[in-house]
## 1
Amino acid sequence: MSINFVPNNIPERTIERLSEYRRTLLNELARGVTHLYSHNLANIHGITAVQVRRDLMLIGFSSDTKRGYDARVLVEFIGNILDGNEVMNVAVIGIGHIGHAVTQHFTGKRSKLKITMAFDVDPQKVGQKIAGVPVYHIDEFVDRARENRVKIALLTLPTRVAAAMVESIIQAGIKGVLNFTSTPLNFPEGIYVEDYDIITLLEKVTYFVKECEAVQK
Amino acid sequence: MSINFVPNNIPERTIERLSEYRRTLLNELARGVTHLYSHNLANIHGITAVQVRRDLMLIGFSSDTKRGYDARVLVEFIGNILDGNEVMNVAVIGIGHIGHAVTQHFTGKRSKLKITMAFDVDPQKVGQKIAGVPVYHIDEFVDRARENRVKIALLTLPTRVAAAMVESIIQAGIKGVLNFTSTPLNFPEGIYVEDYDIITLLEKVTYFVKECEAVQK
């Protein structure tokens, strides 16, 4: 995971956890739970209550009453931190299995984050829609992304062609990239990149499983 | 990301970076590069050379010569840390778009890590093979995983049915889970879980993009 800038004091891991707390709070609200204590959130996420309270303190949220946090208020509070006021447009580059899954999975889940277009080279896919998202030819990427003011790109191309997209992404004015390919990409400062590599995480899981077995022997 | 145990002193992030270094070294070897300096690895991964040297020091690797690290030796050294001696069997649970993508993407990439079976409920998929990996009905999971000594499960099911698999995963003797679903799962101590949630990372990217824009205004 590479960061080119850290614009304020909230740690990356706290940002990740805030997103996870919100997801949990939305799930709880959906099943009728209106209040949660820090230890409820902590249990669900496998962390300590102290960590939950510290995260919420960092964003200035402190309405822990006798009934616990008001889930609806906290969801809104986290939304103010994570989402901002304007809708952020997102483009998916590469409609293979992963691109398809991400587009379907994400569409409609968050009001302030919108996958507005997708790109591919396959004539079978260009001109189609996936979960309501139009698929254009990748040659149109720079123009369409600029016109649509797309700020975030999800790179779900085959690894071998990913590096060739870097220049277009810069030209299109993209500010954030979620890189699903197995190759680190060099973007200039001012473009935030998050690598999301399956092999790395699978190897990490393997390592901890192996170490645990060694301890038990 | 939740950890139930940390069996030694190598930090999680170092483990992730070791996996990334190896991937880069293998790529470089494939295109004929035999030696790299710490600053070469650092540049490719967007980190400092000090960080690279610190990571390699942590695993006891210190053969930085005038020509830099010998890529082949370092690959082997990292392999000894990450892989262990035995092949680790992996099962994919849920053959939707993501399960399919992961199976195809991973198969054959690492010699010590092997996706040996996949599971689904769809009669169209059960009995088929994906990248040579047989797909069985999910009802057979516990028996087949035990018999095949599967140690790691990739959870690529729909989020709403993921929680129902927890008990089977414990019964099957699985020791590590890579959880692609959007729900935190409660496993007992001794099972290592890594959450791999797309929405969380996308929201994180969004946050940093938004903050960067606010700074520039």
Note: Residues 44 and 103 of chain A are 27 Å apart (CA to CA).
## 2
Amino acid sequence: MIYFDTDYMEGAHPLVLRRLVETNSLHTVGYGRDAFTARAKKLILDRCGIDNGEVYFLVGGTQTNAVVLDRLLDHNDGVLATDTAHINVHEAGAIESNGNKILTLPGHDGKLAAKDIREYVETFYSDATNEFMVRPGAVYISFPTELGTLYSLDELRELRAVCDEFRLPLYIDGARLAYGLKGEGNDVTLRDIAALSDAFYIGGTKCGTLFGEAIVTRRPDLFPRFASLIKLHGATLAKGRLLGVQFEALFDEALLAETTIDNDSASDTSASDENVSKSEKCCEVLYDRIGEHAIRLAMKLREAFHVRGYKMLIESPTNQQFVILPNDKLDSLHKVASFELWGPRGATETAVRFVTDWSTTEEDVDLLIANL
Amino acid sequence: MIYFDTDYMEGAHPLVLRRLVETNSLHTVGYGRDAFTARAKKLILDRCGIDNGEVYFLVGGTQTNAVVLDRLLDHNDGVLATDTAHINVHEAGAIESNGNKILTLPGHDGKLAAKDIREYVETFYSDATNEFMVRPGAVYISFPTELGTLYSLDELRELRAVCDEFRLPLYIDGARLAYGLKGEGNDVTLRDIAALSDAFYIGGTKCGTLFGEAIVTRRPDLFPRFASLIKLHGATLAKGRLLGVQFEALFDEALLAETTIDNDSASDTSASDENVSKSEKCCEVLYDRIGEHAIRLAMKLREAFHVRGYKMLIESPTNQQFVILPNDKLDSLHKVASFELWGPRGATETAVRFVTDWSTTEEDVDLLIANL
Amino acid sequence: MIYFDTDYMEGAHPLVLRRLVETNSLHTVGYGRDAFTARAKKLILDRCGIDNGEVYFLVGGTQTNAVVLDRLLDHNDGVLATDTAHINVHEAGAIESNGNKILTLPGHDGKLAAKDIREYVETFYSDATNEFMVRPGAVYISFPTELGTLYSLDELRELRAVCDEFRLPLYIDGARLAYGLKGEGNDVTLRDIAALSDAFYIGGTKCGTLFGEAIVTRRPDLFPRFASLIKLHGATLAKGRLLGVQFEALFDEALLAETTIDNDSASDTSASDENVSKSEKCCEVLYDRIGEHAIRLAMKLREAFHVRGYKMLIESPTNQQFVILPNDKLDSLHKVASFELWGPRGATETAVRFVTDWSTTEEDVDLLIANL
Amino acid sequence: MIYFDTDYMEGAHPLVLRRLVETNSLHTVGYGRDAFTARAKKLILDRCGIDNGEVYFLVGGTQTNAVVLDRLLDHNDGVLATDTAHINVHEAGAIESNGNKILTLPGHDGKLAAKDIREYVETFYSDATNEFMVRPGAVYISFPTELGTLYSLDELRELRAVCDEFRLPLYIDGARLAYGLKGEGNDVTLRDIAALSDAFYIGGTKCGTLFGEAIVTRRPDLFPRFASLIKLHGATLAKGRLLGVQFEALFDEALLAETTIDNDSASDTSASDENVSKSEKCCEVLYDRIGEHAIRLAMKLREAFHVRGYKMLIESPTNQQFVILPNDKLDSLHKVASFELWGPRGATETAVRFVTDWSTTEEDVDLLIANL
């Protein structure tokens, strides 16, 4: 069986796991006050081009969204998001559990439009009775979105502009950030994400670690006493270094460089990406390579869908591919591959999703294509 | 340097880590619906002697306490606990963040007394204005307590009786349960804990895993829709099998048996516990061995304190030892060993804490004793 | 100036105020444990045809909705409501502040459709990942709706049926219930409301009292320890009898009967409703009369709009009339009458609202009509 | 029967009620945007000597405490209060329901000591792990306290100093403020309360109104978007002018002056306080007179207890008198007077409470004394 269900079915990328094993018997202080965590934070801030920022490591995505928005929102604020946003649909009401309302706007291929934000906020402020309404207090988007789509740099800049105009913090959910940054046609860099958001998180769980998300902010002033709020949410990891060690592995150029030379076989991923030139690789980190690998295979798969004439539910440039399969094809494919229906099964055809990640192999994709 | 600061300074017990490595490249469904998790639950329930119970795996202790008490308490209920309880002092207000009050009672060597509960509850129900007061809705204790002390079986039975009388769920925080069960003079078994509580948790983080706590209940009826509540709290681990794999390692007799024979060197712990007879070991699991190991070393240390005439802050039969050191001794010891002050430094002497765990070696303890 | 802004611009109906004055110097126990409150509860339950129910008096509507839904919903439940529902738009996030999500469905002239509920709930329960979604835990509707429209008896029965099917409590916001029950063409009685809902509230603030809403339920089992929850919400009135006295005045047949004979001039309202036959009046209470009075004047006003050919924003059979006025007419009318714009001012015409209540006089309406 | 149970057994002071009746048929805008409310705010601020402050009117005390502290406290803050504080004991967990912990300190005759605050806060800030503890974020006291005692001006200044030192807002619960300000030996004025607190409330419910509490602050910067938070708590009164009208009556010198001359009989209270000199009365308002009246009678009663040799539970200079009665005396007194036990009935003697207020008459007190 080959697996395309989702991007958290394996453990950690072998290089990440190796670092956990290597450091297992060291004694360090708890709660992320260790040297691994400090170094991981520095590597990330440097890579984001942030001078006076802060990084916080948490375990999972729902937790991360809840804790960040709890801090950014006042008790009587709401957060603007698309109606399909993960926080609105698949986090069991975690934001509302904080006491905050999600103010939904329509998505455009899953994306939030700056003009919709402006209209909502202007309407709010022009309403004389708005003290009885929930004030928009922050903006939440995902990169990539729930539908695998990407904001262009211009779109992000427009969002930034409207957020500046109305003093709204912009928070970006980067659960699949590695796959977004390497998405086909993407013109947004990690530095852009860091500069245009007030806070965002670099997803680890779906991009190479056992678990872990790195909240990054160039605005530490927006996060007073954040360590305490994290604890209040039960989100403080006792052995905090586990997060530091893993993110250090993802963002340490030296580690990847040395690994490629000395121990190439430790990394399934690197072997199959020979077409990347040396000069580009000079500053590469594992997080990049993971993104590249999954996107290359996802695009190969998409091309095969196109060639065979399948209808796409949406054109996604990232590691999630949404295609509409005739039901007989769906059933026959399910004999060799595991993947998810995207919504209920239709009468004659059904939308399904194929997801690649760092653990997907060329052979997996070729076998899937052979069965299309 | 030798480390006695706390019991979460290392990674995972080597046998636990080995299982994570062995299973790393397998694909499984997420959120704990995998076979490892299912097997770990079964092993735990069997060992607890529970037929129709349930096990839920979470990542950390504060999170576990918050989620369990959120379920057990109604919106306008409070939880009875000692004033020194971890939930009252060191969890950043997580319980209050749920909207629930902690109703504190005095501790007796850190323990909650059944008679104090009875008096509190009877006073509450006899007060004609109690609709304006917070109703006691559950009881929280720790085994061992924050001070390293243990409830006797009789004490637990008294707590059970008063809880039955007033229909109060009894919840036991077992962050250091392994070290409590093997505590010197302890007459309480895992089965007793399971039978006398409504819910409790088996601590993994301090007892051998990278992270993870196993909530065990013989009363699943008290936990309706609990998976959803866990998600709402941001406490659902995407790669849930990581918890299953680790707890399976802690509670699998077969794993330990085979390991002892085939690969003794993989476990630092086993080597030093030769005085345990074979027959006792027939049903031993790693969780037992971890407890035994830490307690044997803690008792060796305690004996040394006694022999040298140091005052103990409290007589603890578990892996935390609280001793009062003259300040010059404290300073000289700090040159060879890392350990925590227990409260502020005194003028001439200071209370300190030494903690042993599965990673503490005989050599560490001998070196510490040599410097006393 | 004549006032049609809203239905809470005056104090209390004179008969209600008179009772407050008459009882002012009596000493009673606090918190609604007095005899006035007991009698008011009985009058209401009798009139609702409820044998074993309960009534709770609170001060205001937002508070009432928040406290009731806090009790009906589990921590990880949401409440189904239309997107225009008062709780969704104009209560400043009070429901989310409780930790609960509002699950919005499209309104049909402001009304929630049973089929939309069924579809939502069925979709929820058929989703294998619904433990990560917010469960629909109750249904909220208003009678009349925000747009002044009314559910027919058949529509309410369909809602009841779908609520029964999925075990969802049905809660009806009756802020303007008096005006709904007497609405033109209405076929729903107070007893229907009581029988078809699990709980509802009889609005006092907009229907004759200084303040006060009466929560009525035929399902006290759904409201355990409710007095305590009310206190927790800060919604317990110390001098609770003030609520009892006012609702007693609204629902006491004897008071109205005697008043009509002895002291007709005390009631502005009664004087103008001479066309109600004696036999119908035999069981009339002030709450009925207040409703009739406001509706009669609202219908007179609506007829005038129709006759003059104004476009109605919506056809409302109740005390709120929504009409679209050319801007020059709007401006000239504003010189003699006070009323609210319904949304932003348009380029050439604007939607406005005219509201009648117990305090509106025939002269007010005639003057308004003369200026149309 | 004569009543000494508590100070909210009657309706409103006749002068307050008269104003409600006089203004009943006026039309005003809702939610406290009316002219009565504006004038009442101005009268209060002037009397408090506050130039750039703000007043907010709410309905009841528990609500007021919850809303104010919700604003003053960050999500992960707690409020310092005595263990006997009303918010800690008799508000059903309203503060915890906001998500905030009450950090209790021992009371000294019901009063919080500045030195205890300093010690607590210094300990907190010196603890290296305090990010896992609840930060003290505000201080709550009552004037008078739950036990009827009063802070001296020096004590309040010490509290102010420690609050300034640690940047803690000081909030004073003035549910019975009228009776505190006129308390025997009191050296604290309304202006002192206003200047030394960051916010406080002037209790109306127990001091002359039907209901209502006036939050006063010289620090509006601490209360951003407070109207919206009030609404979120369900604490916004639709007919907000009812609060304005009542507090205007309590604080309008003109009203009282004219009333004393023209219509003395309208006020039970004024008649019995002839010993107050004219010059003092020049600036008197009803709130003063209500306080004076109740205190004069309470002191007369206390003197009688002293003379007859009864033990006092505590020496209270305010309108609540706590005395220990032999049980046979308690039983005989209960035949003529209604009053509350203060705690459970003892074997031979029992603590009881007698409360006077604006409605207590000289005859009531004389009759009680005659039966002592």
Note: Confidence is low (pLDDT under 50) at residues 261-280 of chain C.
